[in-house]
Amino acid sequence: MAADMLEEEEVLLSKDSALNLSDSEDDSAIKSTKIELQECHLRSVPVEEDGIPSQNSCGSIHVVFASIMASLGGVLFGYDIGIISGAVLQLRDEFCLSCSFQEMVISAMLMGAIAGSLIGGFLIDKYGRRLTIIVNTVVFLLGAVVLGLSPNYPSLIVGRLLLGFAVSLSATGECIYISEIAPHKKRGQLVSLNELGITLGLLLAYLVNYLFINVTEGWRYMFGLSAIPAAIQGVGMFFLPKSPRFLALTGKDAEAEEVLLKLRDGRKMQVHRELEKIKSSLSNEKEHSGLGLLSSSDNMRGRMFIGAGLVFFQQCTGQPNVLYYAPTIFEGIGFESDSAATLATVGLGCVKVVMTVITLCCVDKWGRRRFLLTGATLMGVSLLLLGIISHLNDHVYGSNPCQESVQCTQAATDLTNNFTIPYSTTPQVFIANESYTLSEAEWLSYYMDNYTAAPPEEPHVHIHGSTLGKIAAFTSLMLYVAAFGFSFGPVSWLILSEIFPASVRGRAISLATVLNWGTNLVVSLTFLNIIENIGVSWTFVMFSIVCAVSVIFIFFVVPETRGKSLEQISKELNNRSLKSGIRAYCKWLHCCNPLTGSPIKLPNYHRVQSTDSFNEIS
Question: Which residue windows are transmembrane per the record (predicted)?
Answer without folding.
Answer: 63-84, 104-124, 131-151, 157-178, 190-213, 219-240, 304-327, 339-363, 370-389, 477-496, 508-531, 537-558
